[in-house]
């Protein structure tokens, strides 16, 4: 809403949303449910926008090249995420057990083990 009010609150992590559908999609991150499937392969995702981003991996145009290996990527964000695998950097840390991860999505999946 335009008022900034966020009346829809997650019962698991207390994150709040202004629209009920946003809460619905958020709650899927806690259940591990992946109802959105790629039309090009068997991969499934928890959010529709993840499928859209993933679809780009099926396109031939991959202008972003890794300077460490031979891999090419469709988006700069994919290259950035991949580059971390070469650096060994793990900037995402679990607040409950201090385990570290190179990708935020890995931390999110790990957090489910604590619930």
Helix content: 25-40%
Q: What's the Cα radius of gyration?
A: 17 Å
The biggest beta sheet reads: 2 strands, antiparallel
Q: Strands across the major sheet, in which order?
A: 1-2
Quaternary arrangement of the chains shown? single chain
Class per helix and strand makeup: alpha+beta
First-to-last CA distance: 30 Å
CATH topology of the domain at 1-31: Double Stranded RNA Binding Domain
Tally of individual helices: 4
Mean pLDDT: 87
Give the tally of β-strands: 8
The poorly predicted ranges are: none
Question: What is the topological layout?
Answer:
Layout: E1 8-9, E2 16-17, H1 20-31, E3 36-37, E4 44-45, H2 48-55, E5 64-65, E6 72-73, H3 76-87, E7 92-93, E8 100-101, H4 104-111
Antiparallel strand pairs: 1-2, 3-4, 5-6, 7-8
Descriptive report:
The protein has a domain at 1-31: Double Stranded RNA Binding Domain (2-Layer Sandwich), CATH 3.30.160. The protein is built from 4 helices and 8 strands; from the N terminus they run ββαββαββαββα. A two-stranded antiparallel sheet has the order 1-2. Strands 3-4 form a two-stranded antiparallel sheet. It has a two-stranded antiparallel ribbon with strand order 5-6. It starts with 7 loop residues before the first strand and ends with a helix. The radius of gyration is 17 Å and the shape is globular. It has 115 residues and is of the alpha+beta class. Residues 8-35, 36-63, 64-91, 92-115 form the C2H2-type domain. Belongs to the krueppel C2H2-type zinc-finger protein family. Pfam families: zf-C2H2 (PF00096).
């Amino acid at each position: 809403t335009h008022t900034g009010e966020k009346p829809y609150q997650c019962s698991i992590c207390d994150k709040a949303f202004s629209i009920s559908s946003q809460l619905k999609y958020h709650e899927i991150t806690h259940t591990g449910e992946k109802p959105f499937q790629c039309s090009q392969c068997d991969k499934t995702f928890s959010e529709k926008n993840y499928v859209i981003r993933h679809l780009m991996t099926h396109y031939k145009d991959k202008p972003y090249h890794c300077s460490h290996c031979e891999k090419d990527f469709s988006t700069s964000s994919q290259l950035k995420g991949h580059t971390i695998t070469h650096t060994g950097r793990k900037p995402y840390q679990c607040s409950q057990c201090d385990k570290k991860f190179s990708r935020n999505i890995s931390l999110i999946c790990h957090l489910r083990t604590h619930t």
